[in-house]
Design goal:
This protein has nine helices and eight strands. Helix 1 packs across helix 9 (252-265) and helix 2 crosses helix 3 (105-117). The protein has helices spanning 45-55, 79-92, 105-117, 148-155, 171-188, 198-201, 222-231, 247-250, 252-265; strands at residues 6-14, 17-24, 31-35, 58-62, 98-103, 122-128, 209-214, 235-240.
Length: 274
């Protein structure tokens, strides 16, 4: 088995909650939990592959319950439920010294997870154009109801490179995208894309927290990102030029250079489980 082979398994943090995990890298590597946004797990697989190849990490990408046809129990109705699900799984398996990377709503989930962990399991945090907090004067742009081309115009520095023609999508793929958006609306739609209490709570998160941002994001602005970083006890902010809401997709080399510096600076804070 090569270090970058991708494998999947299902775990049950609760009896009624099957959780699909996609793992990349050596089984005995330091664990990186990589959390996706509304676009699904494929949007962050590049991060997982990079962490496995560059740092020898065991990078795990869960599929959030309700995405890509997975089951979501009736009680899982908020990002806090999602964060607790991942925290319970990490604790159940005895993980320590975990790097958590979250993109968009996955970044929000990561922040909620880190606040609840209180430094026991997670040793460092990376938020990539994350939602989740209320910043005065910098609201998260409303995306529900927008056409794909409208979302792309706000999300990317160069939307023409990433715009997908809906006419080329199968009915099955369209149905999956619609179901994913319905799951996103359920978990993050009210209040819209934030927890009103979260920003004031983040000062209690004292692990290193890198807030990494595409400068051209018009869904959550760089000013929003800077406020997010300032809220953490040990937060730092880095921006990626000529990139939008998914800088790891639009400018992977520049994004991974910043990510690598963070991983190398805070390596060896603990030990992975046997």
């Amino acid at each position: 088995m090569t270090d970058t082979e991708i494998r999947s398994r299902t775990v049950h943090p609760r009896p009624d909650l099957p959780l699909t995990l996609t793992e990349t890298g050596p089984a005995d590597g330091r664990l990186a939990l990589v959390l996706h946004g509304g676009g699904g797990p494929a949007t962050v697989q590049g991060i997982a592959t990079h962490l496995a190849e560059r740092h020898g990490m065991r990078a795990v990408v869960p599929t959030h319950p309700g995405w890509n046809g997975t089951e979501r129990p009736d009680w899982l109705t908020g990002i806090d439920d999602l964060a607790l699900t991942y925290l319970h799984w990490l604790r159940d398996e005895g993980h320590r010294d975990v790097l958590v990377v979250g993109s968009s709503v996955g970044g929000w989930t990561a922040a909620e997870l880190a606040f609840r962990d209180d430094g026991e399991v997670i040793s460092s945090l990376v938020l990539v154009n994350a939602t989740g907090v209320a910043v005065p004067g910098e609201p998260v742009r409303e995306i529900f109801g927008l056409r794909p081309d409208e979302v792309a115009a706000y999300a990317y520095h160069d939307p023409a490179r990433f715009l997908v023609d809906p006419a080329g999508l199968t009915e099955e793929r369209i149905a999956v995208q619609q179901a994913n958006m319905a799951s996103l609306r359920l978990l993050a739609g009210d209040p819209y894309m934030h927890d009103p209490k979260l920003l004031n709570r983040l000062g209690r998160v004292r692990i290193p927290a890198l807030v990494l941002w595409g400068e051209s994001d018009r869904i959550v602005t760089p000013a929003y990102g800077r406020a997010y970083a300032r809220a953490f006890g040990r937060g730092s902010f880095e921006s990626i030029a000529e990139a939008g809401h998914l800088p790891h997709v639009e400018r992977p080399e520049a994004t991974f250079a910043v990510l690598d510096a963070h991983v190398q600076a805070y390596a060896g804070a603990g030990s992975a489980p046997a």
